[in-house]
Amino acid sequence: MATVLSELITSWAWPVIEEICHSTDIMVMFGLCLGRHNIDQPLLVGAHQDVTAVNAEVPLSIWIPLQEVVPMRHSGLGFVVPSPEHVLPAEPNNDIGSSYFMSQLGNMWIPHYRAGDLTIHSKLSPHFTTDTAR
Q1: Helical segments of 1-134, H only
Q2: 4-18, 30-44, 65-79, 83-97: the lowest-pLDDT one
Q3: In the chain, where the domains are located
Q4: Which residue spans within 1-134 are E strands per DSSP?
Q5: Starting from the edge strand earliest in sequence, which strands make up the sheet with 127-129, in order?
Q6: How crowded is the C-beta side of 41, counted as CA atoms within 13 Å?
Q7: What value does the CA radius of gyration of the chain take, rounded to a whole number of Å?
Q8: Which band of pLDDT confidence, cut at 50, 70 and 90, is reported for residue 72?
């Protein structure tokens, strides 16, 4: 984790993060850092906004894959685009609900990531973990 954070702070991305946050006072909350690794395990379909699932005061989240992520071959992170400008109703588990998710199937963006690619998404950006092909 220290290596990833060190690389992030010294990269081109850090000034962009400061600009997005309108501040040079940035806090990294390690308590919310998640490590995901999925091998041949089915994932539940669900999307959420970080405003309800993480913390309403956190303006953005960063995801940096530690290995290549190819859609339909590896689990990754996908997005509903464009992002709504408001908080969507959330279910008790903080998912935005299958009706919204299914109504947005034509607006899914599931990128191919190289190891170390940087993804920044706002707290309002609906996103989901992708599954691998079976």
Answers
A1: 2-9, 13-21, 50-53, 98-103
A2: 30-44
A3: 2-129
A4: 47-48, 60-63, 77-80, 108-109, 119-122, 127-129
A5: 47-48, 127-129, 77-80, 108-109
A6: 7
A7: 15
A8: confident
Bridge partner residues of 120 (DSSP): 62
Residue closest to 64 by CA, chosen among 35, 95, 41, 26: 35
Residue with tokens 């600009």, as numbered in its chain: 19
CA separation (Å) from 79 to 104, 113, 114?
10, 13, 17
At 107, is the pLDDT very low, low, confident or very high (cuts 50, 70, 90)? very high
Q: Terminal CA-to-CA distance of the chain, rounded, Å?
A: 31
Percent over 90 (pLDDT), the chain: 25
